[in-house]
Backbone:
């Protein structure tokens, strides 16, 4: 079975086409700057040269149409026709309390994703565009949705409730949901396999540090706490998101700077984090390079980012009364030697024995960056959200046809 996995963002669309039985990726790619005259499409078919295209792509339906055309292209394609795409799986960031696992798309599911627009304004509207674009181009193909929030639905009330009037929860579902669940779930499974220990017996802290970033406390394979909250804004400092701050700053800044709700929300989501402190970039690669070249603001941004991450690791060790392993994943977690080194050098109190040489080798592989005898093991596990989405989609489609 061939399954197309789509992660639709507001101005981007990433895709991977899996052949499930052979466990292979037939093609993958991304469309960036959707909505502009100079949208960029990068298509990487298996065993064939990459395709780069710059053209006008004004909305997601066109982006999907272009992707489908490339997948069946005589020269760059990997399929004879789109009829060979048997199902499509989508990443959906917010599933609220309604979705505890992945589901096939139907009218009710789409209505519920739309009801959640308010809670994930950067993400859910884009996912709906992706789902509608597939419907428009391939009306008969089954679609599944895999939620970032689903894995965290095991959190106990002490972790998911905020200490505010309960009416906000009862009436408006104000609570912690948590995100990146597909990734936290996947890397915790892989960590148990790597350590050769049953997941049920492990206390893990997984750090998904990408453009968006979150930590999770995972006990016996279940999420018991996570740093993102009602929306993907809470918790760690991120590329452009502030993460935790005193909530009183919001009305204070709105008053002083005469900001609307939309403007303050945009400030905290799109103009904060690494970008705001460095005044340079939201990209950890650029921050690290500038810091090494002596840029003081980049150094401060890096130090704040690391300090806030380290505090969450301490909090989750306390939350679980111990930790067996800490896992780094996603763009920054998998690639930033400097960040991992600085975090681990401040975890000696937990019994972490950092292996500096191991930290500098094995990029792209699952690996240990603590010593083998370290009381708390530290691992780097490349995440693979797309693979999990493809598997879930496969299982759902199989269950309806058998
Ligand atoms: N070699 C590297 N060193 C440091 N950071 C890196 C490196 N490669 C990628 N990154 C960081 O990874 C981030 C993207 O992570 P990713 O998980 O792909 O994010 P997302 O899926 O949220 O778009 C980039 O913003 C960049 O800062
Ligand atoms: C939920 C979230 O923050 O996702 P991303 O990291 O893809 O922005
Ligand atoms: Mg990501």
Residues:
């Amino acid at each position: 079975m061939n399954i197309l996995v789509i992660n639709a963002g507001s101005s981007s669309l990433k895709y991977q086409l899996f052949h499930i039985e052979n466990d292979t990726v037939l093609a993958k790619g991304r469309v960036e700057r959707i909505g502009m005259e100079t949208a960029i499409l990068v298509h990487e078919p298996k065993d064939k040269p990459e395709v780069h295209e710059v053209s006008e792509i004004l909305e997601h339906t066109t982006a999907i149409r272009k992707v489908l055309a490339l997948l069946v292209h005589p020269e760059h394609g990997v399929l004879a026709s789109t009829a060979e795409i048997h199902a499509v799986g989508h990443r959906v960031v917010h599933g609220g309390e309604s979705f505890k696992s992945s589901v096939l798309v139907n009218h009710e599911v789409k209505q519920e994703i739309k009801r959640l627009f308010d809670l994930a304004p950067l993400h859910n509207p884009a996912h709906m565009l992706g789902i509608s674009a597939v419907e428009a181009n391939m009306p008969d193909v089954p679609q599944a949705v895999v939620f970032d929030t689903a894995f965290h639905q095991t959190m106990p009330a002490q972790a998911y409730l905020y200490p505010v009037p309960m009416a906000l929860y009862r009436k408006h579902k104000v609570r912690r949901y948590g995100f990146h669940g597909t990734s936290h779930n996947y890397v915790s499974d892989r960590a148990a396999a790597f350590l050769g220990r049953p997941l049920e017996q492990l206390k893990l802290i997984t750090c998904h540090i990408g453009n968006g970033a979150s930590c999770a406390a995972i006990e016996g394979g279940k999420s018991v706490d996570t740093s993102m909250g009602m929306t993907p804004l809470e918790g760690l400092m991120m590329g452009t998101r502030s993460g935790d701050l005193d909530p009183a700053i919001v009305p204070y800044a709105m008053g002083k700077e005469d900001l609307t709700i939309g403007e303050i929300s945009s400030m905290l989501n799109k103009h904060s984090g690494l970008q705001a402190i460095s005044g340079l970039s939201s990209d950890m690669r650029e921050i690290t390079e500038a810091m090494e070249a002596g840029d003081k603001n980049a150094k401060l941004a890096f130090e704040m980012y690391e300090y806030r991450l380290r505090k969450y690791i301490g909090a989750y060790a306390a939350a679980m009364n111990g930790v067996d392993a800490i896992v780094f994943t996603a763009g920054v977690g998998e690639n930033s030697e400097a960040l991992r080194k600085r975090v681990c050098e401040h975890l000696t109190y937990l019994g972490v024995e950092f292996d500096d040489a191991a930290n500098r080798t094995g990029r792209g592989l699952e690996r240990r960056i603590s010593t083998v005898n370290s009381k708390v093991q530290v691992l780097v596990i490349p995440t693979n959200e797309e693979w999990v989405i493809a598997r879930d989609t496969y299982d759902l489609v199989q269950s309806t046809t058998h």
The chain has 15 helices and 14 strands. The pocket of adenosine-5'-diphosphate (ligand 1) is lined by residues 210-212, 239, 283-285, 288, 330-332, 335-336 (CB under 6 Å).
